[in-house]
Amino acid sequence: MDTLWEPIGRIIEGFGVDRCMWGTDWTRTTNFLTYEEGVEAFRQHWPMTPSERASLLGETALRIYKWDAAGT
After folding, report:
1. Exposed end of the chain (fewer CB within 10 Å): N or C?
2. Domain boundaries of the chain, sorted by first residue
3. CB–CB of 17/61 below 8 Å?
């Protein structure tokens, strides 16, 4: 996983956190880690403000896809 951080960092820095969305291929890795472990590895690695983290981990997707956070 260490080989991922540098290119991911370049993408986030190049496009800005408000233009990036984080996703996971968790269903392919269920034999190796839990969903929480996959998310936490990412969340703990990046030095982000709570606002930046919220954007990357969901708010940008809500905005881009015009989804309602309440699911309505």
Report:
1. C
2. 32-72
3. no
